[in-house]
């Protein structure tokens, strides 16, 4: 396991994960963890990035935005990471932006940009990365927290999760990709209703709408998330990445262009050792042992 924390300037401290193999361990003392707004672990091909301001329900301020951006840059460029889990410490995933920070800012547009720009840069990296990104949600998932969650590849929610776009309540429009992901998940008309009214959506309704993949009891959230992440980490990483990129790009391409992209991706998969291993295992009637290539 690699464990590190990311400081308010977005600089990783305590451990440098670049080039570190799976199984390495770095100690982080409790004071460092408490002071950091973003925590990161890497274990067995799975990286977890945790928002770490539990007393404030993990609201986003500039240090958290910078720390998140730095953590995403590191995990997406760390060899051996196949799955990235995004979660929040404490009783909530994220309750949105730090309204107190915005309220105190003399230049409110500049304050907004100081949070939005690093968050958007990080989210672009996650969307384009070959790793599968899993959201592990609980409690409040509001504003930017909901937008972040909607844009991830797969999402598990605890049964106490409550979603709200919330932007309408503060006379703002969505950020963090919410306006891109929401209509793709629920359709234009329902997306407008959710955004404009900003009503609370409980976990079961979120599941019905397709905002999450599964709902589990709160006490089982960490175990269920870990099981899903490990299952993905044991899969054929290159093929998973190609599937992710194909599906994410599908709505932007014509049918003909998507067929061409599929042909290229399948041929690229066929060049990988994991493809040969899968065929060998299939005819030998055994489970394949993927190496990530």
Sequence-ordered SSE layout with sheet pairings:
Elements lengths: L1 E5 L5 E2 L16 H6 L2 E6 L2 E6 L10 H15 L6 E6 L10 H6 L3 H21 L3 E6 L2 E3 L1 H7 L3 E5 L3 E3 L13 H9 L1 H10 L3 E2 H7 L4 E3 L4 H13 L3 H13 L5 H16 L2 H12 L9
Parallel strand pairs: 4-5, 5-6, 6-8, 7-9, 8-11
Antiparallel strand pairs: 1-2, 1-3, 3-4, 9-10
The largest beta-sheet arranges its strands as: 2-1-3-4-5-6-8-11
Overall mean pLDDT score?
A: 90
Count up the helices.
12
Return the CATH topology of the largest domain.
2-enoyl-CoA Hydratase, Chain A, domain 1
Number of DSSP strand runs: 11
Strand content: 15-25%
Give the overall form: globular
What's the CATH class of the largest domain, please? Answer: Alpha Beta
| Helix/sheet category | alpha/beta
> How many discrete domains?
2
Tell me the helix content: 40-55%
Distance between the termini: 22 Å
List the helices and strands in order: EEHEEHEHHEEHEEHHEHEHHHH
Provide the CATH architecture of the largest domain: Alpha-Beta Complex
């Amino acid at each position: 396991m690699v464990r590190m924390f990311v400081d308010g300037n977005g600089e990783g401290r305590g451990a440098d994960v670049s080039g570190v193999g799976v199984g390495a361990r770095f100690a982080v003392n409790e004071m460092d963890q408490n002071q950091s707004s973003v925590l990161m672990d890497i274990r067995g091909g799975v990286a977890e990035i945790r928002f770490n301001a539990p007393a404030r329900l993990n609201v986003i301020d500039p240090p958290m935005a910078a720390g998140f951006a730095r953590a995403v840059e590191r995990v997406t460029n760390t060899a051996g990471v196949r799955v990235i889990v995004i979660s929040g410490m404490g009783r909530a995933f994220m309750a949105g932006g730090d309204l107190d920070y915005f309220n105190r800012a003399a230049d409110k547009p500049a304050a907004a940009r100081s949070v939005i720009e690093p968050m958007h840069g990080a989210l672009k990296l996650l969307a384009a990365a070959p790793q599968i990104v899993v959201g592990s949600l609980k409690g409040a998932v509001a504003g930017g927290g909901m937008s972040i969650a909607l844009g991830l590849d797969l999402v598990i929610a605890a049964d106490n999760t409550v979603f709200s776009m919330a932007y309408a309540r503060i006379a703002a429009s969505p950020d963090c990709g919410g306006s891109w992901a929401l209509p793709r998940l629920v359709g234009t008309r329902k997306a407008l209703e959710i955004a404009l009214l900003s009503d609370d959506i409980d976990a079961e309704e979120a599941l019905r709408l397709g905002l999450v993949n599964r709902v589990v009891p709160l006490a089982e959230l960490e175990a269920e998330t870990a099981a899903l992440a490990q299952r993905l980490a044991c899969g054929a990483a290159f093929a998973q990445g190609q599937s992710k990129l194909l599906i994410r790009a599908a709505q932007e391409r014509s049918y003909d262009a998507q067929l061409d992209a599929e042909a290229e991706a399948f041929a690229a998969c066929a060049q990988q050792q994991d493809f040969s291993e899968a065929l060998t295992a299939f005819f030998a009637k055994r489970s394949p042992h993927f190496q990530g290539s």
